[in-house]
Amino acid sequence: MLSFPINYEQPVYRPPSEARSLLVQVTIGCSNNKCTYCDMYRSKSYRVRPIKDIKKDLFRLSQSGMSPEKIFLCDGDALGASMEILEETLLAIKEYFPERRRVGIYATAENILEKSESDLKRLNELGLGIAYLGLESGDDKVLHMIVKGNTALEMKEASLKIKRCGFKLSTIVMLGVGGQKYTDQHITKTSKMISDTCPQYLSFLTTFSVPGTPYHTMVERGLISPLTSKMLFREMHDILEGAHFDLNPVIFRANHVSNQYPLGGTLPRDKEKILETLRFWIKETPEGTYPPRPPQM
Ligand code: SF4
Hints:
alpha/beta, TIM Barrel, two-stranded antiparallel ribbon, 37% helix, globular, binds iron/sulfur cluster
């Protein structure tokens, strides 16, 4: 049996839409690693991999005959690596995988704001085409509570900057992340943020309290009251209803394993249809029921 040509430092994560992409680890872990609900990289110490190791991986992968359409740079916020590392990585990708159509990356607002516009444009010219930004919420109080590490204003500036530099922006929102106490402000401010930044891709995930995280401890102590299914559908409905999609069409997806039912479409074209579906789910869902915890969480 043929073995995979490289070894990843586990665990490795990527966005759902990069399921078929070739994954390349540029950094290990996450430079923030503090978000209270997230346990993805708690077992890893953040570091940028030496360029020789990244290139060795790319060479081995290319020698195995793979011809991926898309490549995704891991781990949690690989855009935090230096320009030198990112440029050399992208040049090596160009050399070894001339057929690839797109290279994607996870980014924090901090990663984007730290780099100059000319540097980001240079990375875009070298093929880095899409950045996935975990916005989670447009509300400062919620961002502070979950220790996201950036303010709403920074999220907005970073979103507009990365779009200006030629990237496609994929924004991730977490439903229920503020609990019942902050649901109203989470809705209003997140709607506004989406209207102001109009990412080309928008996805909604559902917040679950994962054992071992500070978020879980807060839920256990009664400091955060998780949203019921009905409340989660209402959050999704009200965020989308309040948002405008004036700058460009937005491909919307709520089909992550954490979402109770899959939903998607192109906004604003499908907005009314999506809202109708959500109104139906709100009406049909009994009070007091909670979404089933996905097996992977
Ligand atoms: S920035 Fe992302 S990967 Fe890092 S701790 Fe927060 S949610 Fe997790």
